[in-house]
Design brief:
Number of strands: 0
Distance between the termini: 50 Å
Low-confidence stretches: none
Radius of gyration: 19 Å
Mean pLDDT: 86
Oligomer: single chain
Shape: globular
Structural class: mainly alpha
Length: about 180
């Protein structure tokens, strides 16, 4: 890597080795270098935005999310932006308290995929942020219904059961239902 600044595959291997590391500073430095080397690699830019998000730099992350989306739209004309990408951006808007933008972005995802529990939870948070209590409760109720159906239909699926417990711990606190 030191011999060739433009060796992106080597930098990617270094980044992968830091994936399980708690050293976010190293990850940010490496991602910054990778973006500087090739700012048109959408996934690298997206990973950089996610790393900024992880350290609470929501506004800065949003700039990079939007940049990556712009590159995506320019390069992959006619290609849809993925639900995951929109969720990342929408969640970032919620975390930076830009609730109106969050609602616009997250509603696009839920329109395409109404069974996304995570999106409904983020929509609930955004609705709460703009004072729309009924809308927030409606989104949480829809998320709860989807989670319970998934757990009921797959009782041996530990992930589904854990998601229900987590929902009742974090999103709709009810310690009796969480257990």
């Amino acid at each position: 890597v030191q011999a060739d600044d433009y060796n992106l595959p080597a930098r990617q291997k270094m980044l992968d080795s830091l994936e399980t590391s708690d050293n976010i500073v190293q990850r940010l430095m490496l991602l910054t270098q990778m973006v500087r080397i090739n700012p048109l690699r959408i996934q690298v830019v997206w990973n950089f935005a996610n790393a900024l998000e992880a350290v609470g730099l929501h506004i800065e992350a949003q700039k990079w999310y939007k940049y990556a989306l712009g590159v995506h739209l320019a390069v992959a004309q006619g290609s849809e932006i993925s639900d995951e990408e929109l969720l990342d951006l929408g969640a970032s808007y919620v975390l930076s308290q830009d609730y109106d933008k969050a609602m616009l972005v997250l509603n696009r995802v839920v329109e395409r995929n109404p069974k996304r529990v995570d999106v409904r939870v983020w929509l609930s948070r955004a609705a709460t942020g703009i004072g729309e209590k009924e809308r927030a409760e409606s989104q949480l109720a829809a998320a709860e219904k989807l989670l319970l159906a998934r757990a009921r239909d797959n009782p041996s699926d530990q992930t589904a059961v854990n998601q229900v417990a987590w929902f009742y711990l974090q999103d709709k606190p009810d310690k009796n239902k969480a257990m």
